[in-house]
Specification:
The chain contains 2 helices and 17 strands. It has 372 residues and is mainly β. The chain has one domain.
């Protein structure tokens, strides 16, 4: 599988800006950044007790409204099922073998954030944007493929011998986090461990679309097409909480981890539009134009880990680089509308598929941040 090839090069490097709060250092009577205090660059190559970066006290005084800004490059992929669009047809069986489906690849995104600190407390916000589109197609001149996205009762009388199918999947992912946190610093095994507890408000807009086109050469020798556009749009808001930890390995290098979970109230709007067209004479027939909406509770789980590197400039400014791997899981999401049967007349739907579908995203995150 493609994602496994990315895990080996990824004992990641994700640098936490002094990612979070400034903690109080009684040795100097001033506020200093916890992560910077732990990861201060020093001449020694060892983290022994005499040269413990946690004990380094040559810091600038910090007042409230110190800030950290950061930008993340995201290289994520989508994890979800039920993006099939055709089944093989042996000529004798209606469906046989493995379905043909879209398998989303890795794509680019970004995240930007700002955090201000006062003592051990901090408040901040971040915005995550990710968009991906993927397509797949199949050609079978024998017509041995069966469409899986068409309405079972209205199935396009023109499509006699299906020879071509193409499906395109699109995801737009926008998430806003408004976060409050508090950080604590510990000296463990002569090195620093910084632990931060946080919580806040999450606002999410996640839109998915699947467009599928089928084509054949009808009995009349004219080209016929059928298209299906399926959409599901989710707007949600809720609360989340979690913790993150940073542990100094030596000098400027450390490891980190972050985990959080939340619950959101979500509004789902779904629609499906199916139509057929005779390309030669532009005859169009709309077979399905259906919509629905509902509110439901969904949950979200996020986890990430990696390595981090921080440069303390010793003059009230710290730079950091971070590379890591993250997993984001959205549970109990609604899937596209799928009609699963028809009444005795064969003209109207008897029921629709009402199951839920989980949505997952995972991939590399590389961060550049500065605190001042």
């Amino acid at each position: 599988m493609k994602w496994k090839n990315l895990l080996l090069p990824l004992l990641t490097l994700m640098v936490s800006n002094p990612l979070s709060a400034w903690t109080y250092n009684p040795a100097v009577g001033c506020n200093v950044p916890c992560a910077a205090a732990c990861f201060s660059c020093k001449p020694s190559a060892y983290c022994d007790e005499e040269d413990n970066p946690c004990a380094y006290t040559n810091r600038c005084n910090r007042s409230c409204l110190n800030a950290t800004v950061y930008g993340d490059y995201l290289y994520w992929t989508v994890r979800r099922c039920e993006l099939d669009y055709v089944w093989p047809n042996s000529g004798e069986l209606v469906a046989a073998g493995k379905s043909r489906a879209i398998d989303p690849d890795y794509d680019n995104g970004f995240r930007v954030g700002l955090r201000t600190q006062c003592g051990c407390w901090d408040i901040g916000a971040r915005y995550t944007y990710y968009q991906t589109d993927e397509s797949d197609s199949i050609i079978d001149t024998n017509g041995y493929i069966q469409p899986s996205r068409l309405h079972p009762a209205g199935n396009t009388p023109q499509l006699v011998k299906l020879q071509f199918a193409k499906s395109e999947y699109d995801l737009d992912y926008d998430v806003i986090d408004i976060e409050f946190g508090r950080e604590c610093q510990f000296n463990y095994c002569n090195c620093c461990t910084c632990v931060r507890f946080f919580g806040g408000v999450k606002i999410a807009f996640i839109d998915q679309e699947l467009f599928t086109l089928y084509s054949d050469l009808g009995d009349s020798g004219k080209t016929d097409e059928a298209s299906v556009k399926e959409k599901v749009e989710m707007d949600g808001y809720g609360l989340y909480a979690g913790t993150e930890a940073h542990w100094n390995l030596c000098r400027c290098l450390g490891v980190f981890g972050r985990v959080s979970g939340g619950a959101l109230v979500a509004d789902f709007d779904r629609s499906v539009l199916e139509k057929t067209e005779r390309v030669d004479d532009y005859t169009v027939r709309v077979l399905v134009d259906a919509k629905d909406d509902c509110h439901k509770l969904i949950t979200n789980f996020e986890i990430g880990a990696g390595l981090e590197l921080i440069w303390d400039t010793q003059n009230c400014g710290n730079w950091s680089i971070q590379v890591g791997y993250e997993f984001h899981h959205w549970n109990n999401m609604l899937d596209f509308i799928q009609f699963t049967g028809n009444d005795d007349s064969g003209e109207f739907p008897a029921t629709t598929d009402r199951h839920s579908e989980d949505l997952g995203l995972d991939g590399i995150v590389a961060r550049l941040s500065v605190s001042f």
